[in-house]
Amino acid sequence: MIDVRALLGVSLIGLVAITATGCGDASRATATPPAPVVKVEPVVERDVPISVEYVGTLVGSINAQIRARVA
Predict the structure, then answer these.
(1) How many domains does the chain have?
(2) Which of 16, 50, 55, 62 is 20 to 30 A away from residue 28, measured at CA?
(3) Residue 29's CB: how many other CB atoms inside 10 A?
(4) 4 lies in which domain range?
């Protein structure tokens, strides 16, 4: 059977240890670097042509020969 007092004691010690590690000197904390300088452009609404270029061949998986059959 689990000893409730021992479990409570271990939990209390763990809680105190976790709390103590969070209480540090605030002056030792690293300072955040300054924000980077970025270029800002105004929004311009305009039409943009949509075009797509693909590289490939025009060969079918089954090629049929088409011939005129004139009687």
Answers:
(1) 1
(2) 16
(3) 8
(4) 1-25
